[in-house]
């Protein structure tokens, strides 16, 4: 509770695209994203033509609702939703259901700090849809159940509304581990001057293990060795979630993990004191 007796509300950080219409605005500097929207257009058209089952809601459906998650300020979002609407129209026409074509409503979503003023001021005047803004992070609940018919998102899903630790904590974390290459190890020994290298091999311990070294085993080994130093810096409350997330990532790349582990990964050096 705050000193005023009112419960404090946590505000999520958000990083919207630059608003307005100035030199550095997203409105004037999103050509790359526009190309990506156009590249995806053909795929979206084909999927709508092949997969959208309009007979399951015709003629009862009166409003076809489209949401664009991470819409920013335009104009890319307008191109994307226009493409979708045209594809849906063609689908109705191909099924002989032009007379049952519903009204279209587009729900433009982005963080509350997004420049919705610029977005709505630049809406196409001849748009074939009703428009509404839905502020908030799409990583949370935004819409009623079963209320959307098509959801679009482009160059937005990579943004997290909340990742779990602060950027300052990450920047100040130093893991005292370094794996030198054979050349680096040779240079270090020579610069020290106290030893000569009798032999140096790059071994592959994974090649001696019969079973697959999967993501779970990798997670357990890292947690056993690193949990202490991570907990000391970030706090123990994040540990379970951190390694659960790590396991999900390693499972995605288990084949590459096994391949890398069976290659040379352990430096064996025999030194002789001069």
TrEMBL record:
Biological processes annotated in GO? methylation
Print the keywords alphabetically: Magnesium, Metal-binding, Methyltransferase, Transferase
The molecular function terms of the Gene Ontology recorded here are: metal ion binding; methyltransferase activity
Family matches, as SUPFAM superfamilies? S-adenosyl-L-methionine-dependent methyltransferases (SSF53335)
**Known Pfam families for this protein?**
Methyltransf_7 (PF03492)
Q: What's the protein called, per UniProt?
A: S-adenosylmethionine-dependent methyltransferase
Organism of provenance: Eucalyptus grandis
């Amino acid at each position: 509770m705050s000193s005023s007796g009112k419960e404090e509300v946590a505000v999520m950080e958000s990083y919207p695209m630059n608003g307005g219409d100035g030199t550095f605005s997203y409105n004037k500097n999103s050509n790359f994203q526009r190309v990506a929207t156009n590249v995806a257009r053909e795929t979206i058209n084909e999927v709508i033509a092949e997969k959208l089952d309009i007979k399951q809601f015709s003629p009862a459906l009166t409003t076809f609702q489209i949401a664009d998650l991470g819409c920013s300020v335009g104009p890319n979002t307008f191109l994307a939703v226009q493409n979708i609407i045209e594809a849906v129209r063609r689908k109705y026409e191909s099924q002989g259901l032009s007379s049952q074509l519903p009204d279209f409503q587009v729900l433009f979503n982005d963080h509350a700090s997004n420049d919705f003023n610029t977005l709505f001021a630049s809406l196409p005047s001849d748009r074939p849809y009703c428009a509404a803004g839905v502020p908030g992070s799409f990583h949370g609940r935004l819409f009623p159940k079963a209320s959307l018919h098509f959801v679009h998102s482009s160059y937005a899903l990579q943004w997290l509304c909340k990742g779990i630790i602060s950027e300052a904590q990450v920047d100040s974390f130093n893991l005292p581990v370094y794996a030198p290459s054979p050349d680096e190890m040779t240079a270090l020994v020579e610069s020290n001057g106290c030893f000569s290298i009798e032999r140096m091999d790059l071994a592959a311990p994974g090649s001696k293990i019969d079973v697959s070294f999967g993501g779970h085993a990798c997670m357990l080994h890292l947690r056993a060795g690193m949990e202490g130093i991570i907990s000391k810096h970030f706090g123990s409350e994040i540990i379970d979630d951190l390694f659960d997330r790590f396991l999900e990532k390693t499972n995605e790349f288990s084949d590459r993990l096994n391949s890398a582990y069976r290659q040379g990964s352990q430096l064996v050096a025999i030194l002789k004191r001069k």
